[in-house]
Known about the structure:
Non-ribosomal Peptide Synthetase Peptidyl Carrier Protein, Chain A; two-stranded antiparallel ribbon
Amino acid sequence: MKLLDEFKKFIAKGNVVELAVAVVMGAAFNAIVTSVVNDLITPILAIFTGGIDYSHLSITIGSGPDAAQLTYGNLIAAVIHFLVVALVCFLTIKAYNGSKEKTEKEAKPARKCPYCESVITEKTVRCPQCTTILDAKAVPEALR
């Protein structure tokens, strides 16, 4: 019974659930990337390579019924497919990070009071923590 309780705690931990969600999302993303590669990128590459199909390239070693056929063309095709998928993933992540950085730059960062180091907004004239006047020009003379 104790083993079952420990197993329940392990499964209920956030890391396991997050990992499961990541695997499912990765599988779904794989379908998108594979479609982009097969339906968009590969036809464009076929224009430059003349539509060469590497999968039929092979070397036969030996003769007769014991001959071995090394299909190195499949390896070449798999390496090219991997490089194209890696490039698509890289460009997707780069575009996502670029839009994320742009959004972060647009948001005005908060500043800190130079005296007490508390976080204050950009328009704050007097620090709410230590009551220091931060912008004397903005405060009327009677309130100083």
